[in-house]
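Tutorial, part two.
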Amino acid sequence: MRQGLSGTAPGTLLRSRLGSSNYVERTEVGLIHHDKQGTVVDCNRAAAELFGSSRGDFIGMTIDEQNVGIVRQDSSEFRASERPVMVSIRERHAISAEIMGIDRFGQQRRWVEASTYPVFFEGEFYGILSSYLDVTQQEERRRMLELRGRVNALITDAPDEPSALQHLCDVVVRDGGYDLAWVGVLSEGGDGLLEIPFSSGVTDYLYEGIVSTLESDSRGNGPTGTAFRTGRTQVANNFTVQVGYEPWRQRAEDFKLSSAIALPFSASSKMVLNVYDRHIVAFDDVLVEGFQEIVHEVELGCALLRSKTECQRIIAGTIRALARLTEARDPYTQGHQARVGDLSAAIATQLGVDEDLVRLIQMSGQVHDIGKITVPAEMLTRPGRLSNLEFEIVKTHCAVGNEILRSASLPWPIPEAAWQHHERLDGSGYPRGLKGDEIILPARILSVADVIEAMMNHRPYRPALGYEQAIAEVTAGRGTLFDPDVVDACRAVFDAGFAFDQRSVFTLKTGA
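Running the prediction step on this input gives:
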């Protein structure tokens, strides 16, 4: 056995410093006495066990010789020179409650709260006393709360269910620090195999047909297949001894994976989330409970996304039907609304508008003239000028459009944009003479797109005038009739190559 400083027996220095032999020997707090070079000159039993050594072997080790990996809270490497003991030695001051993760080969990661205290005697620096309090469960709870928050944030922002499930895998690996995450979905081929459409991490471990859901298949008796059949979470905390893991044992060893958890979604979803870690006993009760809550929350989020997708499908169908009603009565403006919607979406994107609102602005453009279905067709298609009375009748299409779109329960801003798309900044527009910020942004965008599209295309009373004349028209009204930012954005999208195509879906010119 190695001897401590000045030939003292292990524990003597600690007892002399702390004044209690009972505390040193019985406490679960790891205690280490380092000399001023960082070498361990004394320790208690708890410290030696925490760092994976016998007490006799641990005494005399430098930090560099300790056969453990030390990580920060974000799982990045904690270099020896940056650890609390070495910082305290260099700077001669105490460090309180630094969180470190201790990785020992083939063992569970332990999280400790490390504190250091410089030792002085008659003004001379003698070394460092350090303490290590095991806070594994507290740290796991904190990390799981953070992981749940990040998962929920990304699921909330996901555009659809597939994106949400891929986000789930990405966050578990990137922010949770796990080695592999994947979602298995029951194959439609009827062979009982799980397909893997979503994964992140060491995905080379996975291969087609890696897992079955059939009990009669050896690939169906691991944690994933069992979780799928039983609807209960399965934990494999040591692949080397896990019963039923034989088909993957060598592959897991090759990829340095030691533990996994398989969490089934609801039976109707026919999916399982799988998470792998390189440590044994990586999934204790705290983490199992946390992952079960994550799966539950992701299921709720996906259900909302499916509902949102269905609502969007219904709204889009309503928009198409209403647009066809308008254009059936006015063949000269066939495609006008769709083109206004396309240009409005491009302008909104140029302005940095949120993607969801861009879609709604495009829909607003597609039905902004729906109110014209109450205007006599001969007025809409007449080659000559309208009388004042006839023009007043045409102007009613804004208010009528608002009423129709509201009665169809279409979301904001679609009805309001139809009502306001002929308003002008200086109050000279119709039907209400709104000014400035009284006009919502979607309507300010539509008003510019409406003028541009109308002037660039043929009308019963005149031929197409072209882009240059159209952009000159809105530029002349920049700041008085039209929002200057919208006019500038409109010019920018055309400069970038915007063009109307025959299908009324905007495209970018390639410049060829």
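The two ends are 81 Å apart (CA to CA). In part three we will examine how such features are distributed along the chain.
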